[in-house]
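subagent[fold] <- orchestrator: predict structure for attached chain, return tokens only, no commentary.
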Amino acid sequence: MNSSDLPVTESASEPSFLDCWFLTGATASGKTGVGIELAQQLDAEIISLDSMALYREMDIGTAKPTAQERASVPHHLLDILSPRDEFSVSNYLEAARRTMIEIRGRGREVLFVGGTPLYLKALLRGIFQGPPADWEFRRAVEEELQQAGLPALYARLQQVDPLSAAKLHPHDKRRIIRALEVYRATGRPISHLQTQFDEGRPAESCRVFALLWSRDVLHRRINQRVDAMFAAGFVEEVRGLMQRHGALSRTALQAVGYREVMAHLQAQADLPATIEAVKARTRQFARHQETWFRSLSECRLVPLQQGATDQEVARQILQLDHVPDSCSPQPENQDGRD
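subagent[fold] -> orchestrator:
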């Protein structure tokens, strides 16, 4: 077996991610405030579980913790990348592991806070370290898409890896291309290399909590969040990024709202239409997040009621915690390349 075919797991001599606390939930669910209260009650430091908060200069659109919030509890893995930097799941796991060990060395608890589902799943179950991205292959596929379209690409995946094709949406271009890329590089279907990644643990064996609002309340919170972002200067933030950097990295461009504002600045949409487009995409992303969290057996959903304070929600989470003495890590897989 090639070394790139090995699962990324934790050493038995190292602290386990499964000994950490996790607070997640859809965008605008209130993770930051609850996370700070929970960290203070646990004597914990916070590691960001947000793939976009890694980037400097992307503050308003990613709703990063404020300077005051960061001063109340130590936060890690914020503002560590240039907007032009690429960053994979593997990179995140390496940075998170180093940070976790440092926090443990100070005798404190570790609390992950954020809403990036793939990061959460990788922390809980490990990743499959697949072959590196083949940008020449990806460019060729993009050119082919212009001619044949995505249905033809999906049909090719059905031929070489029907299991992956059955799991992926026919419009999930990025993962369809990645599955074909892995097959091209290894001669083996990615579905055969990722089987352990689908095996979860019971929720009671880990400390993973997902904040859950009713759909109408969450949509109201999202709309309020987006209105506040534009009032705080989101358009100016994106304009500055374009002036300083020109193009953002492929990873950074996945941040919700930034593409829409860039289109507005290029006169492709007026401001009211742009605001509505960002709201719609954010609601869509929130549905995607909640689908992931419900699919993870490790997650315990925390239903929220309007009017509950961050302190009350933190206490509710602590009351839900009944963790056995041992939650030993087991190697499980996912492709960690983007």
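orchestrator: received. Logging for downstream: DSSP finds 14 helices and eight strands in the chain. The chain has two domains: 3-129+198-320, 135-193.
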